[in-house]
């Protein structure tokens, strides 16, 4: 009971960080917090956390950001599935190597989001769409340490 509550609480914290407002000049440097939390849990508990949780969290991000409903759900499911396929291999890598893989997955997320926004008429082409992927990849080692310590402290399995 307690471990499920803490797990859900980490997802809520990820959503809260996702909802933080940034100044217009720093929008491109905003990390993908919710996806970062999902990626950790998919790697740590692949049989408990998967595409279903990613889909629900993606819907919540869609509602928070007021975009096209299902846009983040689609990308989160694709990223969570990709991560679930490689979770055994990812566990063997060092954290900074995992950060590179996370940055690549977030880049895929940003590319799909851009593609959807572009065809909806809400985006202009720029390479800055990959900046959140770089920032999120750099944050991966620290978020991994924090989430792993939470998982161990509350015996989340």
Task: Note down, in words, how this protein is organized.
- With 157 residues, the protein is an all-alpha fold.
- The protein has one domain (2-21, 28-153).
- Helices cover 72% and strands 0% of the residues.
- The protein is built from seven helices and no strands.
- It has helices at 2-18, 33-44, 51-65, 71-85, 87-92, 95-119, 131-153.
- Helix 2 crosses helix 7.
- The chain is globular, with a radius of gyration of 15 Å.
- The mean pLDDT is 94.
Question: What's the gist of this structure?
Answer:
With 157 residues, this protein is mainly alpha-helical.
How many discrete domains? Answer: 1
Gross morphology:
globular
Structural class determined from secondary elements: mainly alpha
Radius of gyration: 15 Å
Q: Please give the share of residues in helix.
A: over 70%
């Amino acid at each position: 009971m307690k471990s499920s509550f803490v797990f859900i609480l980490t997802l809520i914290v990820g959503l809260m960080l996702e909802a933080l407002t940034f100044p217009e000049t720093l929008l491109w440097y905003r990390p993908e917090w919710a996806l970062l939390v999902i990626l950790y849990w998919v790697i740590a508990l692949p049989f408990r956390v998967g595409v279903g949780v990613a889909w629900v969290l993606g819907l919540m991000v869609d509602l928070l950001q007021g975009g096209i409903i299902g846009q983040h759900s689609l990308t989160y499911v694709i990223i969570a599935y990709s991560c679930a396929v490689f979770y055994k291999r990812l566990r063997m890598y060092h954290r900074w190597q995992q950060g590179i893989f996370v940055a690549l997955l977030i880049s895929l997320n940003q590319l799909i989001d851009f593609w959807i926004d572009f065809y909806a008429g809400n985006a202009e082409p720029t390479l800055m769409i990959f900046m959140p992927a770089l920032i999120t990849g750099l944050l991966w080692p620290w978020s991994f340490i924090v989430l792993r310590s939470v998982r161990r402290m509350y015996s989340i399995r």
